[in-house]
Write a structure and sequence with these properties.
This protein is an alpha+beta fold. The protein is 44% helix and 14% strand. It contains 15 helices and eight strands. The strands form two sheets. It has a five-stranded mixed beta barrel. It has a two-stranded antiparallel ribbon with strand order 1-8. Helix 3 packs antiparallel against helix 4 (56-69) and helix 4 (56-69) packs antiparallel against helix 5 (78-99).
Length: 416
């Protein structure tokens, strides 16, 4: 009978595949119930057969819970199957951590400094996003619209730009023509008419000065519902207007609540992600903060460490953490230009795998035979005679090279 390691490996493959980011995959995987129940029972027998060990009772209980999750699985609707798979992956990760503890010389990557996740494994990255605390079915659906189905998808969902909110200026100290950040409370908001043009205006007061926010576009109901008097906002945008009547046109904004941890949303370099309707920056930032904190220790890169050292590249886990939440002492310009050390590492990984794929393809072309074509037929000669001009020596040379390639059994790869 197989060992615990072999059985767990057999269980992992169908679990990870079925919970992949392909929307229809969960429906296309057939007989998963039968396969998983058989494997879990085999695992239970192996657990009972092995000598007593720490955590044996816990592993038996976790295996029993996993068995229950696949009872009646094949008859479930796709949405229910995804929920069961998310829970099954969680139990499977627990089983692996109990039954296969990391060996002293290697194995599972240790947690990195400055993280406070509750543990996991590289397999955790394949879990559906709905596994995350605070991500229910509605938010999971919104993330799915952006093709963010797994925790790994979220880790590589990179900010499209950054805002420097380390310095929040009093309104009187802002300078027209520069992009700056202020915090103020709404005192008044209304739709106003300038000729035939409707403009939504909100007045913000920070206790030292007044600034007017203007929106030429946007649904009135949304703007009125958002900018309610008394609410406190952080606004980032270019200051316009005269010294005593400053304004921002369509500023980036977020509501600030006095009872939340504001250090995530300002007084730091703040990541800004691409949004979808109903999924806003603060929600995305909270989700990404949790994901980076708890799951970045399990990121792995197959690029040898020696290659990374030779290229002066930072460690992959640190790159992902920095790219989402840069340290407060970092310069913002390299992040805005996507040229920071963190960006360089991820860009290098992308090019590395691109070049590796090209090399493998080229190697395959040397083995795989192409199709030989006859190139000196009557149609080609007729075509040449019909041309209203004489071919240049360079054109004749290139046509000859193409004819040689086409006549050869090797696959042709040519850009003319």
């Amino acid at each position: 009978m197989d060992s615990l390691t072999a059985i767990l490996a057999k269980m992992e493959a169908p679990l990870v595949f079925a919970s992949g980011d392909d929307r229809d995959r969960v429906s296309r995987v057939k007989n998963l119930e039968k396969v998983m129940i058989s494997l879990v029972r085999e695992l239970q027998a192996a657990i009972l057969r092995d000598p007593p060990q720490p955590g044996k009772d816990e592993s038996a209980g976790t295996a029993a819970a996993l068995l229950g999750l696949f009872a009646g699985y094949d008859a479930l609707a796709p949405g229910d199957k995804k929920e069961r798979l998310a829970e099954a992956l969680r139990h499977f990760s627990m089983l692996k951590s109990i039954l296969l503890p990391p060996s002293p010389g290697g194995g599972t990557a240790p947690p990195m400094p400055e993280t406070r996740g509750e543990g996991g494994s590289p397999d955790s990255l394949a879990q559906p996003v709905q596994f995350l605390k605070g991500v229910g079915p509605r938010i999971a659906q919104l993330l799915e619209k952006k093709q963010l189905s797994t925790i790994e998808d979220l880790l590589y969902f990179l900010p499209r730009r950054y805002e420097d909110r380390r310095r929040v200026l009093p309104i009187p100290e802002t300078v027209p023509g520069l992009r700056q950040t202020i915090v103020g409370r709404v005192t008044h908001a209304e739709m106003r008419f300038y000729g035939r043009r409707k403009i939504f205006e909100a007045i913000f007061d920070d206790g030292r000065g007044i600034l007017k926010g203007k929106w030429f576009k946007g649904r009135e109901a949304f703007l009125r519902g958002t900018f309610k008097p008394g609410r406190r906002f952080i606004l980032t945008g270019e200051i316009a207007g005269f010294p005593f009547e400053k304004e921002m046109i369509h500023p980036d904004f977020e509501v600030l609540y006095d009872d939340e941890d504001q250090l995530l949303h300002f007084k730091r370099i703040v990541p800004v992600y691409s949004e979808t309707e109903g999924l806003h920056q603060k929600t995305l930032r909270r989700i990404l903060w949790q994901v980076v904190r708890d799951f970045s220790p399990w990121i792995q890169s197959p690029i040898p460490e020696e290659v990374c050292r030779r290229r002066g590249l930072i460690e992959i886990r640190e790159a992902v953490r920095q790219i989402h939440f840069p340290a407060s002492d970092q310069e913002i310009e390299p992040y805005q230009e996507m040229s920071s050390d963190a960006h360089r590492r991820l860009i290098y990984d992308e090019f590395f795998f691109f070049q590796l794929g090209m090399a493998l393809r080229k190697r395959g072309e040397g083995i795989e035979k192409g199709i030989s074509f006859a190139t000196e037929g009557r149609m080609f000669q007729k075509f040449q005679r019909l041309l209203p001009f004489a071919l240049t020596p360079a054109q004749r040379r290139v046509i000859g090279e193409i004819q040689q390639d086409m006549a050869s059994p090797r696959r042709m790869n040519r850009l003319l």
